[in-house]
Amino acid sequence: MDLKNVLKSISPVRTLTLLMTYALGAGLVQYVDSIRDVTVMIGGGVFLLMVLLALDYLRSLPALSKFNQNHVNAEPKQYRFYRLAVGLIAALFLTVAIALYIGWLVSGVLWQGMNLIMIVVVVSGGFYYMTSARLKLMPYQLLVEALLVVVIPPAMGFFLQSQTAHPFLTPVVLGLVPLYLAYRLLEMLKSFYEDQQQGRRTLVVAIGWERAMVLHNVLILLGYVILALVTLLGFPWRLLWPVFLTLPIGLLEIWLMERTRQGRKPLWRVMRIAAASVLVIPIYLIAFAFWIR
Length: 293
Description:
Blueprint: H1 3-6, H2 12-32, H3 38-70, H4 76-107, H5 112-133, H6 141-159, H7 169-190, H8 192-197, H9 203-207, H10 209-230, H11 237-240, H12 247-261, H13 268-292
Helix pairs in contact: 2-3, 2-6, 2-13, 3-4, 3-5, 3-6, 5-6, 6-7, 7-10, 7-13, 10-12, 12-13
């Protein structure tokens, strides 16, 4: 075991999703009006990225401590160094985020709605860390993660540039949440036996692998259903129809998961690419449509 394995929770797809959903929220401002301050927009993306990376590093600290306690052959000096390095890196990321926040306060960027979002970020981040530190809270980690990665970023991207809410933001985000949950469930299914052996009570361990597979498939279908219903709320079909070009990939992912549930050899690599495509491509297409209109 080395630091690379300890920090494997830092997911490139999750980081990319956060940045893209943030760009989606900022793109909606561009669609309905125009970006007021490009510097603030970039700073908001950096702020969220710093917070997410800091939380990922902080969440690795309990794993380092547990490993050091449970392995008699572990080298205490090595793992003390790892813990110190991880703590310093997390502190650096948090310092950057706090500096950006203070800069916004001084410049008057933060209005009442943005202050509320900041409170939600702090509370959600604290609970997200606690879900790794306390076993009883671990099954809720996925829901808090979805809030931090899919819900908060577009809201922040939008309200850093606008003080007027727009009806398009909430329905689109609600459609993306099930797709994100489906992707993360797949990752948890892949590590199910390892999590079970190491005592990590993830959502999949809590509900069982077979129910998690069914839930994964339902979430993919639910995501597309919600996005389809969004058009009934006035969302322009011309902006949303490209998203449904990924539906065959979603159906393929459902078939592959059902095939695995029936006892066939899982094609994890193919399934992961399909699930990531079902998540990332719709976000990109919607954000791109906002930015070019």
